[in-house]
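Q: How would the structure tokens look for this protein?
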Amino acid sequence: MNSLELKELGFTHTEVKRGIGQPAYDPAIMLKLYLYGYQWRIRSSRQLEHLTRDPLEARWLCQQAAPSYKTIANFRKDNVKALKAAQRGFAGLCRALGLFDGKQVEIDGSYLKADANASKIHTNKQLQRQLRQLDEFNADEIEAEELAEVYDLKAKLGYWLERQK
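A: Here is the predicted structure in token form.
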């Protein structure tokens, strides 16, 4: 978690504020709290606030910080794109480590709400279109990963050539 470049992912308040007023909580701490709550299926900002005061591991994880429920809710609201980027990065890391191959999709959650609305019913044609879109997205992700590997190899090669001079 500490190795993530939070500013590059788009998280707000990544720089230390100097001057008047209370400084913002470190986004790394807030992200840790968010992921800890996700692990234990706790989505409520008020319940996450309670976590920062009760279990020892959550207090340790948050470095004794105790943000209010409103701060936690604002963190989620203000960092939607950054949280999605962090999730995509995590999925890419898992793929790179071989933890999953993307051939099987599972749904996280056991509470399903029935909805027989005509707009919610998907035809086979619609499902096939969505699968094609997902395949295109995965292809783009794989291409981006390969590009990153190429740039990394070029940088390593350049460093090695410089050392040989």
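The chain has a mean pLDDT of 77.

The CA atoms of residues 13 and 24 lie 6 Å apart.

Upvote if useful.
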